Amino acid sequence: MPNLKVLKVNKFKQQIRYLKKNYNILSFEEIKFYIKNKLSFPKNSCWLTFDDGYIDHYKNVFPILKKNKVSASFFPLATKGNRKKLLDVNKIQMILASCTNYEYLMDELKLSIILNQKKFNLPNYSYFKRKYYNSGSFDKNDVAFIKRLLQFVLPEKLRRDLIKNLFNKFIKIDEKKIAKNFYMSEKQIKKLLKSGMHIGGHGIDHIRLSSANNKQQLKEISKTFNFLKHIGVDIKDWVMCYPYGEFNEKTKKILKSKGCFMGLTVKRKVANIQKDNFYELPRLDTNDIKF
Length: 291
Prior knowledge:
Elements lengths: L8 H14 L1 E2 L2 H9 L8 E2 L2 E4 L2 H13 L5 E4 L11 H11 L3 H14 L1 H4 L4 H8 L8 H13 L2 H15 L4 H6 L5 H9 L3 E2 L14 H18 L6 E4 L7 H9 L2 E9 L12 E3 L8
Parallel strand pairs: 1-2, 3-4, 4-5, 6-7, 7-8
Helix pairs in contact: 1-3, 4-8, 4-9, 5-8, 8-9, 12-13
């Protein structure tokens, strides 16, 4: 999938060299030590975090970090063995990478909304277009619009059916085969941990916690906690990285009850440990690094 949006390995190597030269890259244990002992952080402190547990992180990121003697935190989705299904968020990425005719995809969404309008009590397509057709952080209007409708705007049943149909149409490879070669296995996650990398929680199925009810949130966070404990993570002060960066007050309450030390969002901003809420820490994306 040549159109899949990724950071090239050579670009990542350049970023690591730049960060090593200009910043103090801290491990999570160092960060926790400074916080617990109320010490000032070194000038230009930096923490590297990697979400979702892609096998690319194991095969490409991990060796580069080891070579540069840099520690980082990884937030893979909990898994026993190998994941057998692709997340919908990754299916959407693959659909957009395989079909760059975005007008066609938008027409498919429009048709589906028209055909299912009564069944799901949906507003007209023009309503969705007015409200959600605008650019995102890194996407132009059409791509951002397609992502929003397929990720969270349309009813879940309709979204899943649309994603399944579009995926089967444009990706001609068995889903299980892709999943096995797309995400880290439990064995690989454990190897990262044993090699000195920090492992945090990122949920089970990458759900939007802010949209989940209390029971769903408790189940998702409890299973995440149990997985970290299962693979050998020190769960006394563990870290949660919110899927999609979304959470609410109930999320924070459950995390606190489970001994979670901090929560990471996707808000694009430099974190200020002295001032920011520990359960709402912002981060910068690799695309934000300019040098």
